[in-house]
Design a protein that fits this description.
Structural class: mainly beta
Helix content: under 10%
Number of strands: 45
């Protein structure tokens, strides 16, 4: 899976310009290489069960520490005893590679904390893990409340339930926290939920210990608004969405606060939509599934900083970009939610009668949008599903689908002894996604293991490509300032200390006009490496010094501007550009009589095609190729390496 995605940031580097400021090097080298666009690619992660067990684990949520990307927390509804529910907690302290898990949150005395459902987890500015959930009424009865538990020791134990004051009967709680250091409300956490009186909201300024009294943010009309979502933007603004229906008219309601949730501007009918036929809900395989709207904000500091995005499952109609009865649609606002003129289809499958649901959305620190969802596109009978992540690096205008699943699963009812809340058709509300540095973690649940619904994860690693500019001496045509043909070069990244072991390698095709190739290194970690560049009939060349490589940024290196960019100044100057010596036909590191003999024999036999003895890249071996072989042999040209 080697998806090409547009517009991620690449660092630039040129050894010969190392004394110039970073900004000057960036503009000079980028302009010289003439990149029309930048790109990133993704290494797929393996699927793994986070905590294999026989306990039901559904309704997954995931969050990353805002200032320590190695710390990740996940949560899920678990049924640790028949008819009793709590929340399972899954903690990683190394970026998702390993997890420490518990199927029940416990207080400092070791007692299990009972929860009902909809667990959502965040990590605030101080590293406090805050878990919101629908909680049992401490006075008894079925009018559920909103509860919070917090942990200051990475989930080792949790506070007893803190109840949001003023709650009537709650459902579908959602939590977020303001981790933007420039925000006037830095550190404040927010919860939103729905009840029969509307959409309600509460906030905490002290890590979840105390919460404000619940306050309605939707218009005062009593109406069913099930499934609110909340996000914080870079200026401290808070945004809330919810579904709203009036007869045949469907909307996403929207509320905005610019003062930390004290005052709200809200509308039930802000965004007209065309949801799936049952108002963001569908029934498949005798289970209830949904595509409820979810909102997020771009807080990356990039070119779309402050943009808002809403994803939901919708159907074709009314100028909707959906093409069938259940697609994921993203809506975009560049003006803090004042207008929502842009909408695009997220999933890029072809054909009809396919379903995408349970969308969750994330914007990472580069401004890239990632949307995770269940999808049955690869099953003609539409009864088996897989997990996809669709990624966009241009504000949602285009997406590329990444198949995350390495297995299929049939979402279906649980066995009677495990019915969730006693409802046969209910298997939970949604799944989660988060990003950590250059990694994206979809966090879902499926029943592929022994028919047990369990938490699954995959760590997708997004890498930026590197760009190398190089010209083969014989290929270069100074009259037209191009090369006779595009060709493949192979670049090795070698450790900077002897014996200079190879850390990674990649191939790139050198463009005939820009002289630039894109090289995707799949395994190298951040560090300084020598670039070892090879071509089928050129002398091997190394960078003059180790080059800084970043997984998230790659590098740009230019061998054409100066001989000092090559180790030992081992480049040929031709007309107006520095080039790789064309002469090593047998790739033994030296231009000698053996190379001359190969070229001479092929020229005598008028050999043509893609062959190593064609030193000029014009498709035929003749006297022009002999010239390079003889000249460079006479000059004792050979590779120069550390």
């Amino acid at each position: 899976m080697r998806n090409k995605l547009l517009y991620s940031l690449c660092f630039t580097f040129s050894v010969s310009l190392s004394s110039i400021s970073y900004e000057t090097v960036y503009s000079s080298v980028k302009s010289n290489i003439n990149l029309s666009q930048e790109a990133s690619f993704v290494n797929p992660g393996v699927n793994f069960r986070v905590f294999p067990d026989t306990v039901t684990q559904v309704e997954t949520s995931i969050s990353v520490h805002p200032f320590n990307s190695q710390i990740i927390a996940g949560a899920a509804v678990t049924d640790i005893y028949p008819g009793g529910y709590t929340t399972g907690i899954f903690i990683s302290t190394n970026g998702g590679n390993n997890w420490q898990c518990k199927n029940a949150i416990k207080d400092s005395t070791g007692l299990i904390i009972t929860t009902v459902g909809n667990p959502k987890i965040v990590i605030d500015k101080n590293g406090t893990m805050i878990l919101s959930y629908i909680a049992p009424n401490p006075l008894g009865g079925n009018n559920f409340k909103v509860g919070v538990s917090y942990s200051t020791n990475n989930g080792l134990y949790w506070s007893k339930t803190v109840y949001i004051p003023g709650v009537d009967t709650a459902d579908k709680s959602f939590i977020t926290t303001d981790c933007i250091q420039s925000s006037p409300y830095f550190g404040r956490s927010y919860i939103v939920y729905n009840e029969r009186r509307g959409i309600y909201f509460s906030y905490s300024t002290n890590g979840g210990k105390v919460w404000s009294a619940a306050k309605r943010v939707s218009p005062p009309t009593y109406y069913q608004r099930t499934g609110a979502s909340i996000a914080v933007s870079n200026g401290g603004e808070v945004y809330i969405t919810w579904p709203y229906t009036v007869e045949t008219n469907k909307y996403i309601g929207f509320a905005k606060s610019t003062n930390g949730g004290i005052k709200w501007d809200s509308s039930d009918t802000k965004i007209p939509v065309t949801p799936v036929n049952s108002d963001f809900r569908i029934n498949l395989n005798l289970v209830k599934l949904n595509g409820l709207p979810v909102i997020t904000a771009d807080n990356s500091g990039g070119e779309r900083n402050g943009w808002l995005y809403i994803v939901s499952s919708e159907r074709a109609g009314n100028n909707n970009p959906a093409t069938d009865s259940c697609d994921i649609i993203i809506r975009c606002s560049s003006n803090h939610g004042a207008t929502w003129p842009l909408k695009f289809r997220v999933n890029q499958d072809i054909g009809t009668y396919k379903h995408q649901f349970f969308p969750a959305v994330n914007v990472d620190n580069t401004g890239r949008i990632e949307v995770v969802y269940y999808d049955d596109r690869n099953t003609p009978t539409r009864d088996s599903f897989q997990v996809y992540v669709s990624s966009s690096e241009n504000g949602g205008q285009s997406f590329e689908d990444i198949l995350v699943s390495d297995h299929k699963f049939k979402l279906k009812q649980m066995v009677p002894s495990k019915y969730l809340f006693g409802i046969p058709s209910y298997i939970g509300t949604g799944i989660g996604i988060a990003s950590s540095d250059n990694k994206v973690l979809p966090f879902w649940y499926d029943n592929s293991a022994n028919d047990e619904y369990q938490v699954w994860c995959s760590v997708l690693e997004f890498r930026s490509p590197s760009y190398i500019k190089a010209v083969q001496e014989g290929f270069y045509n100074p009259v037209f300032h191009n090369i006779n043909s595009c060709d493949t070069l192979k670049a090795y990244l070698r450790y900077s200390a002897s014996p200079y072991i190879i850390a990674d390698s990649a191939c790139g095709i050198i463009d005939s006009l820009t002289f630039t190739g894109e090289f995707n290194f799949n395994n190298a970690v951040n560090g300084n490496y020598y670039i070892d560049l090879k071509h089928r009939n050129s002398i091997e060349v190394w960078s003059s010094a180790p080059v800084p490589y970043s997984v998230s940024a790659g590098f740009i290196y230019d061998f054409t501007v100066s001989s000092s960019n090559a180790y030992g100044n081992n480049l040929a100057f031709k007309s107006d550009i520095w080039c790789l010596y064309s002469c090593d036909v047998n790739q033994d590191g030296i231009s000698d009589i053996e190379d001359i003999s190969i070229v001479e024999n092929d020229a005598a036999n008028s050999v043509s095609g893609y062959i190593n003895s064609d030193l000029t890249g014009d498709g035929i071996v003749d006297s022009s190729d002999m010239m390079y072989a003889e000249n460079n042999t006479t000059n004792n040209v050979s590779s120069v390496i550390p």
